Amino acid sequence: MGSKITSIRVDEEQWRQLKHNNVNISALMRDLIERYLAADADDGVADSIKEAAISRKRDQAMELQEEAERLLAEVEELEEMKTQEEAKQEVIEEGGEFMQQTHERFNQYSPKELARNGRFREWAIDHEWNVLDLKDAYLDYRISLEDYS
Amino acid sequence: MNTGPKRSISVSLDERVADQITKDHINTSGLINELVKKYLRGEVKL
Fold it and tell me: Does B1 touch chain A (CB under 8 A)?
């Protein structure tokens, strides 16, 4: 089994006292830690240190939980966007090329302007539509698109 | 908590011990200071 070097910040006063007593400080610290871990440390120090470790772990758990909730919210948002995009694509497909072209040409016109617009009337007649029927069908199409935008 | 001057020292720990400390999220310096304090008071025997 190998070993690892750990840097420890010890109270200056304690360090002096140990030096004064000719204690091998590194060896003492190693022994104290090993004893602590091996003895199921049963005193107040152990309890307070374990409490601190528990508290830290609890904080970590809370942070992870918050992160998980944030990620889940993002997932929901992405799923919602995906659903909307799919629904929009469905509307476009159902409307076909004609509705798509109609939208490209007349999406700037208000509903009132459409039926009065000469170009729209020509567009409807050229495609063998009744002007008012095309107006209604196109406005339904436009509203559906807006619903999923 | 003692916030007086500190001295950094390097301690070679058995890998198993070092791993255990890391796994348990133990503040090694905090633990050592508490244990040394108890040792100096004669409350910890080795």
Answer: no
